[in-house]
Amino acid sequence: MKYFKFLLIFSILFCTCFSYAQDGKKINYTSDRQVKNEERYPGAIILSKVENQVHFTHQGIEVWCDNAVFYNQDNFFKAFGNVRMQQGDTVSMASSYAEYNGTTQFAFASGQVVMQRPQTTLTTDSLFFDRVKQQAYYRSGGKVIDTASVLTSTVGRYYMEQDKYSFLTNVVLTNPEYVINSEQLDFYSDTGHAYLYGPTTIESETSTVYCERGFYDTRGDTGYFVKNSQIDYKNRQVEGDSLYFDRNRNFASATNNIIITDTINQSVVKGHYAEVFRERDSVIITKRPVAATLQDRDSVFIHSDTLMITGVPEERVIRGFYDVRIFKTDMSGKSDSIYVDQKTGLTKLINITSGPVTSVTKRRNPVIWSGESQMTGDTIHLKSNPETEQLDSLMVFDNAFLIQKDTIEGYNQVKGMELVGLFRENDIYQVDINKNTETLNYMRNEQQELIGINRTVSSSIRILFSEQDIDEIYYFDDPEGGLYPEEEFPINQRLLIGFNWRGEERLMTKEDLFEGKPVPELVRIQGIPLPEEQEEFFDEREDDDLLLNENSRLQPEDLKNSKTPPQREQEEIQPVNQLKNTSSEDENEQI
């Protein structure tokens, strides 16, 4: 009897590489040494390392540790010291402590937890692992190192089948070139694709991106952003329904309802498509573009088929191409193209057509309306004072033609090769016309009665204005012509050659910038889907059906779907060689 008792004790205490195996659902193990301590661990076997670590296997998972407490009947163990867990060839985990329930296939690890996948490494202080769902979960802070970036968050969840991380709360993605802060970020480690949800910023030395829903390729450094999206450069802000961003090319594009704000030059450009090249300091805007620049407490609006803005902030240049329209409260105009130098205050209205003007043809020259006056010519220059932002002068080159409606009938007309107009407080007060000048104007007395029609030719003319109306006219160098009674002046000669009154085109309001133009059909934005509604990580279970075990370090309330787990005191197990020495008889009684 004593012999069999001795054999039993010997087999339990000193047998090496003991293996326990039942059906396929039971946890298998090998251990150099094993004892029981019913007082401290009732119903459990204490396993420990002598030369080889304790080794557990269960349905494709392997666990190594220095010490373990194994509850055979519950199919549950707690592992201590240099814990390593391996699932197949793709998931490995190391920690100081771990628990595993073979029935529910649910694991918990704590203490310097490191989970490695082919593309990523996750570190945290505690991690839950559901093998049935193939999901890992932390809620007390974690860090994931990717090939290109480092991601941190308070809460994180890993979906192994999708190779996807879902980060929540205080999410930060750090890359050598930029930092992403987000409310929620879904990250696919095989591609490096990140989906951004909630208020999100991407900050770098040269730009800051904001969005409330977006996509970013962390390895290709390109992004696509929707919902309240904007890109802030140091002196320019880009907004739109949809933004595309390419960090490699320093390029961005915006689609639908775009707004580009120049914070230094106090100008805003709107449209429905734009391309921004940061290194070249250039912006191209199409689809109903309009630029608004503040000038002397009044805004100047410019619209054309295409607008281009180039140059560093101190030397911005605005160019408009095709069907240019300008509006200011006291002035408006049209031209084929426009050039605005914000540094010098020079604006050029340019005509891209050429050819002689005859009595039959009417060239669509650049035109400016100021009050009841209309000025046209092949090219028109407007000069503003960059400091005061007030209009300084106006120059018309080649085929200058000034028309002003008479107070009652007809048109007062002045033409020549060149025209120079001077402004005072944004009102024109003097016009000089040179080379082959010709005038036709209706002369009236103080009672506005018609005295006659004056037609005169001279080498140059000076016109003085009062409250935007012609007040006086001076002729220089042997003028020819005179004043004719109305009845003696033929009707068919009351319009000078090249006359082209375009008053019906005059812009009276800001809305006239788009008069006669169809509203562009906006591109349908390809949205970014909302994040998938996640099922709760911890399944609701009966009181007697625990995810881990009643002997777990965790309590049932720790396995509820709350964000912050209760703090528990750390449990430590004494190594076998530190257990109190007992006789064979005592050990037999413990077993």
Q: What ranges have pLDDT less than 50 throughout 5 or more consecutive residues?
A: 1-24, 563-591
The total beta strand count reads: 39
Q: Which band does the percent of strand residues land in?
A: over 45%
Rounded average pLDDT: 85
Structural class: mainly beta
How many angstroms separate the termini?
17 Å
> What is the gyration radius calculated from CA atoms?
42 Å
Biased composition (Acidic residues): 536-547
Region (Disordered): 536-591
Keywords: Cell outer membrane, Membrane, Signal
Domain Organic solvent tolerance-like N-terminal: 49-183
SSE diagram, text form:
Layout: H1 2-13, E1 18-20, E2 28-31, E3 33-35, E4 45-48, E5 54-58, E6 61-65, E7 67-71, E8 76-87, E9 91-101, E10 106-116, E11 121-130, E12 135-138, E13 142-145, E14 150-153, E15 155-159, E16 164-175, E17 178-188, E18 193-203, E19 208-217, E20 222-232, E21 236-246, E22 251-262, E23 267-277, E24 282-286, E25 290-295, E26 298-303, E27 306-310, E28 317-328, E29 331-341, E30 346-350, E31 367-370, E32 373-376, E33 379-384, E34 391-405, E35 411-424, E36 427-444, E37 450-466, E38 469-476, E39 480-484, H2 584-590
Antiparallel strand pairs: 1-2, 2-5, 3-4, 4-7, 5-6, 6-8, 7-8, 8-9, 9-10, 10-11, 11-12, 11-13, 12-15, 13-14, 14-16, 15-16, 16-17, 17-18, 18-19, 19-20, 20-21, 21-22, 22-23, 23-24, 23-25, 24-27, 25-26, 26-28, 27-28, 28-29, 29-30, 29-31, 30-33, 31-32, 32-34, 33-34, 34-35, 35-36, 36-37, 37-38, ...
